[in-house]
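Final report, closing paragraph on structural work. Over the funding period we assembled a curated collection of sequence-structure pairs, and we close with a single example.
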Amino acid sequence: MLSVSRVASRMTGVVARFSTGGHGDGAGRGGGSGGSIRDAGGAFGKMEAAREDEYFYKKQKAQLEELRKHIQQEVDHHKSQLENHQKVLDRHQKRISEIEAEERALGKE
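Its predicted structure, as stored:
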């Protein structure tokens, strides 16, 4: 059975080993295998890593835009519901006022 300190020391070595190098520097440096072009390293590996980063940047940007649109639709929907509820509330308050006026008129007779 491994102790916590042994596991931690082993994990530290793994993190230190993989954190050397940058994206596209080749296999084993910067996160391991990413395909044959990235395994080779050099300019092509770095270019492929840059394209990959750009792809995920654009994908995240599109997802955030979709989320923003969806939330805006919800805001618009709730504003519409709020307006409808306000109209119903006003109508009910008017009806209550009319009933109270009728009660007062009946009380005077």
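Confidence is low (pLDDT under 50) at residues 7-19. The CA atoms of residues 26 and 33 lie 7 Å apart. We thank the funder for supporting this effort.
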